[in-house]
Amino acid sequence: MNRRFVFAALLIGSITLSPGPALATDNGPDAASALMRLVQEESEQTLFLRCCWARGRAGFRYCQEYGICESDRESVCEGIGPAEGRTLACSEAPPTLPEGG
Fold first, then answer.
1. Dist CA 57 CA 61 (whole Å)
2. Where residue 29 falls among pLDDT bands split at 50, 70, 90?
């Protein structure tokens, strides 16, 4: 009797926890790709800022002159490569970025 109860509980649990039609809609892949684009954009922006302010070597390929804002507060940092078209006025306060990287 006890085994039948456990089996029934497992069966009911698996039915209620299985993915339903809401996860199988056409919005799923679009929403996931939009989220990935947003994460990538945020990552590229962070690397661009790191490059302008010489905070970590990871962003080196994102700006025309690495660390220009550290040496010349009147300059404008210009993006290259993945950050093509981005600019940052060095006269603005440096962004709060995690150390390292």
1. 9
2. confident
